[in-house]
Structure to design on (350 residues):
């Protein structure tokens, strides 16, 4: 029964895919006789090879597109996933901050505490765990939707002579998906395993999750930018205007919201971190200049039992940079809502 189930699954999911995309059936019949014709006539909604190797993803794509075509809700529903991920994380952080300020661990004068400090004690600890766990799960779901909807419209070449270029693009896509899911796993991991004031194994798991998020997000952003640049150059090459398989990628990247999202992701990747480093340094310089006179501002009274190991200005500067870096990557992943909406609109168009 197990063997027959596997064989049946391998035979039925391509058939269901062909039924959902009827234009792909003649293409599949002709592909065995002409590889170049296969590349030139690839339907815009065909699955890329990386996804075709996973039958459950192909079946999920068929079900998602079929339901979306019947009810016309898909373009707006997919926008909610990355938007909800960002909103969940932001609401969690802001709420935990308010509770932390009214709790026993509040340090007067500390405006930007480390985000991990917001999940140490009850009652904010439970909210921290639930909020970041859910935010990471929604973030991973957004990456999966990108694979199901956006990737099929990007991953096509105009001729068989571009096989090496296809291989490079597929490798970039696989890295984009891997690091995206890794970053999402890091969000959930550091959220569920919160920081403790005493060194423990849970602290190391928390720090590992935070590093996984940062490393995964940076690698994902780097690979994503490279992939979009390569595809933009490919579809703009001479001789590609009349190639059907390029039309989907050109239509996607020509969407106004997608073009704005791509530019925003480029700014975040290349310039936002520099701004985040520059603002605290500029603020430190201005405060030093203002405090150079004979009158010094009155320092807040700090309970010696709560006195931080380093001065508050340094802690605020470090906290501000951490908050800014987390926010910029939250915005980065949220911008995929534009790509998802444009891709879903093209899929459900009559």
């Amino acid at each position: 029964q197990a063997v027959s189930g596997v064989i049946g699954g391998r035979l039925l999911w391509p058939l269901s895919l062909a039924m959902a995309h009827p234009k792909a059936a003649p293409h599949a019949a002709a592909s065995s006789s002409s590889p170049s014709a296969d590349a030139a006539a690839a339907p815009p909604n065909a699955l890329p090879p990386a996804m075709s190797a996973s039958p459950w993803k192909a079946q999920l794509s068929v079900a998602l597109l079929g339901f979306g075509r019947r009810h016309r809700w898909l373009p707006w529903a997919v926008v909610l996933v990355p938007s909800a991920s960002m909103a969940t994380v932001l609401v969690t952080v802001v709420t935990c901050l308010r509770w932390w300020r009214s709790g026993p661990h509040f340090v007067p004068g500390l405006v930007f505490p480390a985000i991990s400090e917001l999940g140490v004690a009850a009652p904010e600890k439970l909210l921290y765990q639930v909020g970041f766990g859910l935010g990471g799960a929604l973030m991973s779901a957004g990456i999966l939707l990108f694979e199901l909807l956006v990737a099929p419209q990007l991953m096509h070449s105009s001729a068989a002579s571009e096989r090496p270029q296809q291989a490079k693009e597929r490798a970039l896509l696989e890295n984009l998906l891997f690091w995206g899911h890794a970053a999402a796993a890091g969000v959930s991991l550091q959220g569920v395993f919160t920081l403790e004031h005493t060194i423990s194994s849970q602290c190391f798991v928390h720090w590992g999750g935070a590093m996984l998020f940062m490393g995964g997000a940076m690698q994902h952003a780097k690979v994503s930018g490279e992939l979009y640049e390569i595809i933009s150059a490919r579809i703009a090459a001479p001789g590609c205007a009349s190639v059907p398989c390029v039309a989907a990628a050109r239509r996607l990247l020509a969407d106004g919201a997608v073009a704005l999202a791509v530019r925003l992701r480029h700014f975040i990747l290349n310039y936002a971190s520099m701004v985040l480093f520059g603002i605290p340094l500029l603020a430190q310089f201005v405060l030093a200049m203002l405090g150079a006179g004979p009158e010094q501002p009155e320092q807040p009274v700090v309970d010696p039992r709560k006195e931080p190991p380093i001065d508050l200005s340094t802690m605020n500067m470090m906290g501000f940079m951490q908050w800014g870096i987390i926010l910029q990557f939250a915005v980065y992943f949220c911008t995929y809502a534009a790509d998802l909406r444009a891709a879903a609109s093209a899929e459900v168009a009559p």
About this structure: The two ends are 41 Å apart (CA to CA). Residues 41 and 119 are 54 Å apart (CA to CA).
